[in-house]
Design goal:
The protein is an alpha/beta fold. The chain folds into 2 domains: about 10-195, Vaccinia Virus protein VP39 (Rossmann fold, 3-Layer(aba) Sandwich); about 205-295, no CATH class. It contains 12 helices and 9 strands. The protein has helices at about 30-35, 50, 90-100, 120-125, 140-150, 165-175, 200-205, 210-225, 230-240, 245-255, 260-270, 275-285; strands at about 20-25, 40-45, 60, 75-80, 105-115, 155-160, 185-195, 285-290, 295. The strands form 2 sheets. It has a 7-stranded mixed β-sheet, with helices on both faces. It has a two-stranded antiparallel sheet with strand order 8-9. Strand 1 (about 20-25), helix 1 (about 30-35) and strand 2 form a beta-alpha-beta unit. Helix 8 (about 210-225) runs antiparallel to helix 9 and helix 10 packs across helix 12 (about 275-285). The longest helix is centred in the last third of the chain and has 15 residues, at about 210-225. The two termini are about 40 Å apart.
Length: about 300
């Protein structure tokens, strides 16, 4: 499988902490990933027997990901990485959605795709050269829609450009091809797709699903005036028992509570703790309760 340069590792920042990584048919990433994450478990799926034997440090599975189910538990990986993974597949949405099931709630999929609107492809079509017809090529909008339909919550794209001869670019534009975001000169799009919104992924990384579910249940009971006094008491009991800090509580409330004004009115009615004012101040720094608009 072709490797794209600059590589998908450009999407990996110093803040990323991957404990389990799956590399799909892109052997060139194995050594750079080992350097970035020396303690991580790295898994490698490939149908190429030669590649399978080259990297003893990786846990390698010889199989065709396009035809066979991956032998892993759901929500197993922090990251799945592979170039052009949807280019030669029968049903790309099945593959994309399948990968999402193997990602943790805080996980991401890094991949790439060839831009069908790149000038090289258009120039070949103009000459009647259809050699690439066996591959699935995508526009940026089409690929984004595919990912959102496959249960990813946020998508980031980075263009990898190869400039065209000026006269050809002018000719394409004259023929009616839009060149929004310099798309006609973007040969590949590098993609990072999150299973959850990045801010929600951070929230999910700090406490267990059971604690988050209980906190969400308590907040909604307070928000909708269901046994409100007991709900406020339960909130502070959970806050103290799990050492929930003010910034986390405020971020969680911003994420799950719709009627914040009513929620905080109920909290004030049955609580006088100093932390409540700090939580409200943090929420108000990003939310204007008078207009109902987010400030950032």
């Amino acid at each position: 499988m072709e490797d794209i340069k600059p590589s998908l590792t450009n999407f990996i920042s110093g803040e990323d902490f991957f404990q389990r990584i799956l590399v799909v048919e892109s052997a060139a990433y194995l050594e750079p990933l080992r350097e970035k994450f020396p303690t991580a478990e790295i898994f490698f799926v490939t149908a190429n027997e030669d590649d399978a034997e080259k990297f003893p440090d990786a846990k390698t599975f010889l199989l065709d990901y396009r035809e066979e189910r991956l032998p892993f538990d759901e929500e197993f990986f922090d990251a799945i990485i592979g170039d052009l993974t949807l280019e030669v597949v029968t049903n790309p949405q099945d593959i994309a959605a399948g990968f999402s099931t193997f990602l943790k709630q805080t996980g991401c999929w890094l991949t790439s795709f060839r831009n069908i609107r790149h000038w090289k492809i258009l120039e070949k079509l103009m000459r009647g050269a259809f050699g690439g017809i066996v591959s699935r090529l995508y526009t940026r909008t089409e690929f984004e829609r595919l990912l959102y339909a496959s249960f990813y919550k946020d998508v980031q794209l980075l263009p990898l450009k190869k400039k065209s001869p000026p006269e050809l670019l002018e000719r394409l534009i004259d023929c009616g091809f839009d060149n929004f975001d310099d798309d006609l000169q973007t040969e590949f799009w590098l993609v990072k797709a999150w299973r959850s919104m990045p801010e929600l992924a951070l929230l999910k990384s700090m406490f267990t699903p059971e604690i988050r579910a209980e906190l969400s249940r308590i907040l909604h009971r307070i928000e909708y005036d269901v046994a409100t006094a007991a709900g406020v008491k339960n909130f502070w009991e959970l806050f103290d028992a799990e050492n929930i800090f003010v910034d986390y509580a405020a971020a969680f409330i911003r994420s799950v509570v719709v009627h914040r004004e009513n929620f905080f009115a109920n909290m004030k009615k049955f609580s006088s703790r100093a932390e409540l004012d700090a939580i409200i101040d943090e929420c108000e720094s990003l939310y204007d309760f008078d207009t109902g608009n987010r400030l950032l």
